[in-house]
Amino acid sequence: MNDRFRRAAALVPGREPDLVRLATITPVWEGDSFWYAVPGGRVRVFPETGERVTEPAGEPEKGAGESGETADELGETAGERYAVAVQDGNLLVDGRPLTTDGVPGHAYGLPSDQGAMPIMAVQLGMDTPPELAWAPDGRRFVTQRVDQRHVPTLTLTQSRPPGGGPRPLAHTRHYEMPGDPLPTVQHMIFDAETGERVDVDLPPLTFTHDTPLGIGRLWWCGDDTLWLLYGTRGAKAARLYRIDARTGHAERVLEEKSETIQLSGPLLVDAPLVRTHGDEVLWYSERTGWGHLYRYVDGQAANAVTEGEWMVREILHLDWTARQLVFASGGHGGNPYDRRICRAGLDGGDVTVLTPEDADHYGQVSPDGRWLIDTYATPGTPAVTVLRDASGAVVTELARADLSALVEAGWRAPERFTAKAADGVTDVHGLLYLPAGFDPAAGYPIVDSIYNGPQLARQARITVRGYPIDPWLLDPAGHAPALAALGFAVVVMDGRGTPFRGRAFQDASYGDPACSVGLADHVAAIRQLAAERPYLDLTRVGVTGHSGGGAATARALLTYPDFFHVGVASAGDYEHDAYYAVWGETYQGPPPQDYAAHSLAGLAGNLRGKLMIIFGEMDDNCHPGMSLRLIDALIRADADFEMLMVPNAAHGYLHAEEYVQRRQWEFLARHLLLEG
């Protein structure tokens, strides 16, 4: 068993930089060429000829106008000559106060407590910079004032303060739960040079978790125009406002509503796919059942830019003058989670798929839109990065991932599978990880590495707010390769109620933030896999997950006690009436709702398997109260379980990460491998 633990430790996500080379590249454009880093230096490429030149590593030489910045980015660069800070709830520029009436709980420039997750930020050594966006003139900026004084608070107890001392410390933060009064936000524009202030003429807007500025929903279009994309409570409507930055006058240009959720992009948790230019708006909507882009002029519908039974996943390049759009789609390939890179005209017409390979494609477009750097891969093949021209033709291969060290460490590429959902009709997809020394004549316990929250897809290779989610290699979300190295057959999949599969698939979880329908699909798919693969042992089925995955783990053992035998539930959002308002109100509906209807407490008596519950005492996301409510219910039901509370830990375990990981592995191994 010690050998298995060593192999697993070699495949944790933090090892990926040492084990993988050139899985993708980051181009730096300079004039008519670009360069990217390689071990020991960098490679410069001249797209017109395809010529490649190896250079020693060094600082890039960036000339003005050669970096491909947008007007907004240039504004931010120019704005760096002014130092904007927040002190005691007020804004300062270069040490000069711009405001004097800010107070704690009603401060300028800061997010809400819930949006900032301040305890986790402090533990990660992160500052909370002012939330603002510079105008292209580099002198004015738009910022916000959040009022959370009326929002109920959450108190966390720090039993062992890092400075020592015998007395625990209490930390109190504003934390809105479903049905609570929500924080509000107002916006204002400041001239950093003169201090002149213009207030946006809108009433205080309620929000949950993140302000519009915090998630890319407030932006400049020229020096005098701002656009604000606002989602109403429960995400029932999306409203687009055009704001005159000179006067603060705000005009509602567009609004779209939904009976379930009105998304402005494929993921609730990422930046929207809405763009503006003069009187034109590129608008994202799922009105046909699939996420597509539509062009509006002066608030009136002009044409569909994309359409079909597939969806737009990302906007990669938009040229209003050339009337061209380059984007990533989902659903054009053999696997619905794979992206293809496509081109479309803004005025309508055919969509051209630029990347024919049946694989997942990650695209990066040159600033002038003439060149595409395309990295594509499947779970079983090393990524290949090529340079393509505007038609999609390959100019030259740039890089090919080297996975030799990864394979030598014991990694085995996952196998894709397709199964039927619990309804017997809908296709669901996933990945199956097997140990490197896999023997089809042997029997393997199964571990479902689960995250079935309705806001993310577990198996897709994506980036959310800068954080990569890549289950194919070392899987930072669930450590599937490490679990396989322990000797498990590991399943990573997405059931109904999750994104990237169209509106009907997503809406299957509406009214059920626990995504129970998706959990039923996990059970159905694993049964089908075992029927086709006799080496999968249905008498030894485990499940493990973190956050939404932790809640899914506990629910799996309590609702399917004859199927799931062992589970490790980490930092779960077990009680949705006690969790973020943005979660329950979006996926179950705004008040009045019975958020306690999906409580796990009433199911505690169903526990027959082995359950381990792990949480941090300072978790300001899935706060300890939710874990302790479940623990209390299990005690009252006289159910046996194990618990690990990590002192000082927030939603991640930081200093205790390796310890927690070892305890998880030992628990699964003890009850699925050794007892089996």
Q: Can you tag this structure with a few keywords?
A:
676 residues; alpha+beta; Rossmann fold; Methanol Dehydrogenase, Chain A; 4 domains; eight-stranded mixed β-sheet; six-stranded antiparallel β-sheet; 13 helices; globular
In brief:
With 676 residues, this protein is of the alpha+beta class.
Query: Which residues sit in consecutive blocks of at least 5 with pLDDT less than 50?
Result: 60-78
The CATH topology of the largest domain corresponds to Rossmann fold
Task: Write out the strand line-up for the largest beta sheet, numbering strands in chain order.
Answer: 32-33-37-34-38-39-40-41
Residues in β-strands, percent: 25-35%
How many separate domains make up the residues? 4
Mean pLDDT: 93
Q: What is the second-level CATH architecture of the largest domain?
A: 3-Layer(aba) Sandwich
- Compute the number of helices: 13
CATH superfamily of the largest domain: Alpha/Beta hydrolase fold, catalytic domain
Give the overall silhouette: globular
Question: Approximately how much helix is present in the residues?
Answer: 10-25%
**Largest β-sheet summary:** 8 strands, mixed
Question: How would you characterize the overall build of this protein?
Answer:
With 676 residues, this protein is α+β, with helices and mostly antiparallel strands. It has four domains: 2-19 and 405-598, Rossmann fold (3-Layer(aba) Sandwich); 32-64, no CATH class; 75-245, 8 Propeller (Methanol Dehydrogenase, Chain A), CATH 2.140.10; 263-401, Neuraminidase (6 Propeller), CATH 2.120.10.30. 17% of the residues lie in helices and 33% in strands. A hairpin with a 6-residue loop joins strand 21 and strand 22.
